Amino acid sequence: MATPGTQYMMQAGLAAGMSGTQGTHSPHPKPVDPHLSDPVNMLPPDLTPDSKSRIALHGVGGKDVLVPYLSIGAWSWGDKATFNYNPTRDLPRIHAAWAKLRSVGLTFVDTAQSYGDGESERICGTLFRDMPRDSFVVQTKWLSTPDMTNTLMQAGGPKSKLKDSLIRLNLDYVDIYLVHGPIHPSKISTVAKGMADCVESGMARAVGVANYDTKEMIKMADELAGHDVPLSVCQCEYSVVRRLPEVSGMIRECKKRSICFQGFSSLAEGRLSGKYSRFNEPQRRRRFSSYPMHILEPTINVLRSIAEERRVPVPAVALNYSINKGVLPLVGVRDAGQAEQDMQALGWRLTENEMKQIEGVSLQGSRSSFMQHGTCRNQRHAIAQLHAKSRALGNCRDFDGFLDISAHSAILRTLHPFFVIAENASSIPLAPGHGSEVTVAAGSDGWQALGISRKPCESLSHLLRRFLGDLFAVTLFFDLSSLKTASFSSHEVQFFENSPHLIGTTMVLAQYLKKVAAWIAPPPKKSEDGRDQWPSRAAFLLAAMGGCAGQGNLLRYPSVVYNNYGLQWFIPYLLAVFAIAIPALILEIAIGQAYRGGTVIAFNNVNRRLKGVGMGPILISFVVVQYFTVNLAWIMNYFRNSFRSPLPWEGRIEEFYMGDVVANVDPVVGNLTAGNGAVAHYTVYPGVALIGETVGWSAFIWFLIWISIFRGVGLTGRVVYWTMGLPIVTTIIIVGRSCSLENAGEGIRLLWATWRSDQLASGTVWQTAVGQVFFSTGIGFGYFTSYASYNSKHSNAVMDAILICGSNILFENVAAFAVFGVVGYLRRWPQDGERLGAFVVGFLTLPEAVLHMPGANWWAILLFFTLVVLGFSSAFVMLDAVATLAVDSGVKMSRPMIVTGLTIISFLMCLPYCTQFGFYLLDGIDRWINNVALIFVVWSGLVGATTVYRWHDVVSQTGLPAFVVYNFGYFGGQIVGVAVAHGVSNPAAGAGAGFGLYIVCSIISVLIAITPRIKAVSFWGKNPLLSRFWYLAFYSGNQLRRDLNGVVGGNGNWNIPRFWPILLRYVSAPILAIVFSFAYPEFYTLRHDPMMISGFILAHFCLLLILLGVVFPRYYDIFIPPHRRAEGTEMTIPTQPIEQDFVPDVGVFDFESGMPNSISDRKDSNRIDTGHSTAVPKL
């Protein structure tokens, strides 16, 4: 949305003197010096523009924008601060005026984001609604208002605001995009990059500036040229009573550079229309050229006289004058009468005598401090003609190279002698320095006066400070104090002669360095909606696989299987994969891909109250990645010691791990009172110092993470080929070596050739299987959603989810061969009552096996290298999920800056884990983040997506009471069930209580529900009671499935199956609720440990932040760009899919509601041929 109050800020600025006015601001208007005027007729003699004539504005790639010779200003459309806009009164008049203008082809409209706080753009959007896109031209402007998007504006500011404009205009692109004024806090080079990005992304065909002075315009043109984008338009106030852009040379500079000069306020805000007089002054709020009318009477009388003679309205004469001067006039139109008058400015031309009459009563005007310049900064009067230069320079004859000097005439007349420096300095005589002087140097676009000094010894240094910074850039900005002299020595002349060669060498070297950097860290590709995109589908799959295929596969999974060995393990394991992992993964990937954003944006599209649910995975990733890197630092310690021979852990494996690697001081263990009723003594941790090596390796890991993600998915897409390819190769080598060990076959048969059916009767194995699948897959960390948002919007999300999950299962089961081969070799068979922990396998069992292998150092290096790379690939995807949130939120910082800041903050926050109590802190945080926060995050995502998605549809068909009662039974059944089960230590009783409550509430809700007006699908619609139950129980999840299929399904893609929402809501979510409930009894026995308490509190703080988003969703709007906050609030029709903004050839849809089986091709006439789409996609 537009920044609220912008129209009033503009009015306040104008009142404070931002407008370049005389009159009330300067009661002594100045006539135009005829020596400084351009010729009276700047158009070719044989050209008489009419309503069909067009001017070609230079666009990118030679694609010109053709515009009429008269542009229509839309400032008054919607603006209350200046024009007292009243929609009831003014909107019909605007439509009538537009119909008049449209009938003759004058459809070039100028609007701005600040006009009426965006209302002007919205009105324009309604006018364009039924018009072919090539039948009108729209120009809007970016104003750097002091809001979050612009205050710290980097190059993304113009593009972010243009996205808002396109939504209001209901267009895919604008024809021309201007910078509204030079009041932006950033450098012109930064703004130029932002404007160029708008063109490159297809959101604008051409760009320009408004209210710039000549120097600023030239700077912008040069900066844009560096991006291969021409400056097409320069807009300033120009009229008969404000000819300052002409006399200052700005219009001539524009013509030299093939820039179209557009003059706004061409009728001086109505003062030249003939309807005002000294007895009928215009409103004071119209502040451009706000002269008292009695001063303008001579001008008005001449215009009226010519108008009467030619039988045209007075405004037509004033506009025709601007056209003859080579200016594209911009005039405001509020009704059909004004449109009729302005149209008559075309089809005829003033004679030379009539032009001279008007110029005889014209005024020069003035400039302001901040905007509306049209001149050169710090100049009241500029030299424009060659004879004026000669007069100003006095006796100086040597100006052969003077192409277009720009200087203060009054000062130049008094300066003597005159100093000149040129690239070819030897051809111009240099006078000795004394007295006042001006230093002139050659710039890339001609000669410019760059420094004026009253002290001769300061002139050269002043020149170098001001000139070298622009011409030579920072590369040559060295100590120049020795050059502070009154005259120019031969050494200094030689310096200027050689400078171009230095510049050329530097530029060539910089180009090669830039190419090398782009090859190593390429910028990401852009998808059709302008979002960054993976280099390939394989890159996305590898990155996602790297996130889930980590140490949990090589360390945790073998330990779990060791404790539950036998083929019977795969029954609960595979059921958990298909009932929890794959359905949840489909949800995470599909919403990220369809809604084009990270978890917060994606869940905001599901329902605005789920922003907190979307924030949950980001919090989990941000917390986990901090201690995860410390775990990698411990592995790096092993890796370093793997180069020592003999291996330092030989004969002291456990002592080496705890004493040398972790290096924590043993705590004084606390305890509970008898019966666990209270805490007798809390655990005390005497060691608090940082461990230097752990800190160093942690910093190294963070550096690798930064390198991998700072440039976005373009670089990450290359990194993952190494982070996944190398571990796969090394794992295969380790597996092969393990399987070749003596007696390895016995260990392998322990897993694959043993059957223990009695284990299936134990609840432990089922709980363990669910936990393993849950944690090894990586759902709930947010990176699947973030990475999927960089996919092509219509990628095959269901297949990707199955491939990712399947590859994870395959990898961890292949990796298990390595551990079980070692188990057989060491003959370390499972014992009843003995359970192997994950750290035992990673840091004790495998290092012990390495000691018994030939070439132990080589295998140790390979083992720990594999563990580091596997863990590293999981670490950077977690931080990348956080970075995606910051980038998507519209923070006006570049992605490298965001990633750098997050990396530094994360490194500092990981330092507590690098202390002498860090191992125990890690255990406490990890235990409760995983067992409480992570489970709750996934559970809330599953039930939220299948409960509140389009819940208004359910309420409209069944009534609010029925909706509330049914969901009370659904959520209450889970809470009551687990509470009773734990309370009486009887799972069957808990299941009975939970199901009982759910069934009772379901029956009540069906009975009190109203009969749906729109029947349910399939057989559910044959009976009113069944129809009510279908809406209450299945509608939200099923409708989410159908809407997502409209994006990620069809056209050869796999559709999300019908049973998917049922699995999410009625299988996956209750299972997670049960797993979640086991955390609290466990904490009750560990509450004497401060580290466990810290982790427990932190986990519940994450839960609190999630619930805060449900109760107060607006608090999380800061994480969503303004133009996307309304997504998910569209009006919907029950059982009907939400219309897509961009629908490709999606083939057959699975619409149960009788919708057509195919969607016809859309011909998008609003798309320009740039290869990028510009609209913001949304469901």
TrEMBL record:
<keyword id="KW-0560">Oxidoreductase</keyword>
<feature type="transmembrane region" description="Helical">
    <location>
        <begin position="684"/>
        <end position="707"/>
    </location>
</feature>
<dbReference type="InterPro" id="IPR037272">
    <property type="entry name" value="SNS_sf"/>
</dbReference>
<dbReference type="GO" id="GO:0035725">
    <property type="term" value="P:sodium ion transmembrane transport"/>
</dbReference>
<keyword id="KW-0812">Transmembrane</keyword>
<keyword id="KW-1133">Transmembrane helix</keyword>
<dbReference type="InterPro" id="IPR036812">
    <property type="entry name" value="NAD(P)_OxRdtase_dom_sf"/>
</dbReference>
<feature type="transmembrane region" description="Helical">
    <location>
        <begin position="988"/>
        <end position="1010"/>
    </location>
</feature>
<feature type="transmembrane region" description="Helical">
    <location>
        <begin position="963"/>
        <end position="982"/>
    </location>
</feature>
<keyword id="KW-0813">Transport</keyword>
<feature type="transmembrane region" description="Helical">
    <location>
        <begin position="899"/>
        <end position="922"/>
    </location>
</feature>
<dbReference type="Pfam" id="PF00209">
    <property type="entry name" value="SNF"/>
</dbReference>
<dbReference type="GO" id="GO:0016491">
    <property type="term" value="F:oxidoreductase activity"/>
</dbReference>
<protein>
    <submittedName>
        <fullName>Sodium:neurotransmitter symporter</fullName>
    </submittedName>
</protein>
<feature type="transmembrane region" description="Helical">
    <location>
        <begin position="801"/>
        <end position="824"/>
    </location>
</feature>
<dbReference type="Pfam" id="PF00248">
    <property type="entry name" value="Aldo_ket_red"/>
</dbReference>
<feature type="transmembrane region" description="Helical">
    <location>
        <begin position="569"/>
        <end position="591"/>
    </location>
</feature>
<feature type="transmembrane region" description="Helical">
    <location>
        <begin position="1062"/>
        <end position="1080"/>
    </location>
</feature>
<keyword id="KW-0472">Membrane</keyword>
<feature type="region of interest" description="Disordered">
    <location>
        <begin position="1156"/>
        <end position="1179"/>
    </location>
</feature>
<feature type="transmembrane region" description="Helical">
    <location>
        <begin position="859"/>
        <end position="887"/>
    </location>
</feature>
<feature type="transmembrane region" description="Helical">
    <location>
        <begin position="612"/>
        <end position="636"/>
    </location>
</feature>
<feature type="transmembrane region" description="Helical">
    <location>
        <begin position="719"/>
        <end position="736"/>
    </location>
</feature>
<dbReference type="InterPro" id="IPR023210">
    <property type="entry name" value="NADP_OxRdtase_dom"/>
</dbReference>
<feature type="transmembrane region" description="Helical">
    <location>
        <begin position="1092"/>
        <end position="1116"/>
    </location>
</feature>
<feature type="transmembrane region" description="Helical">
    <location>
        <begin position="928"/>
        <end position="951"/>
    </location>
</feature>
<dbReference type="InterPro" id="IPR000175">
    <property type="entry name" value="Na/ntran_symport"/>
</dbReference>
<feature type="compositionally biased region" description="Basic and acidic residues">
    <location>
        <begin position="1160"/>
        <end position="1170"/>
    </location>
</feature>
<feature type="domain" description="NADP-dependent oxidoreductase">
    <location>
        <begin position="70"/>
        <end position="361"/>
    </location>
</feature>
<dbReference type="GO" id="GO:0005886">
    <property type="term" value="C:plasma membrane"/>
</dbReference>
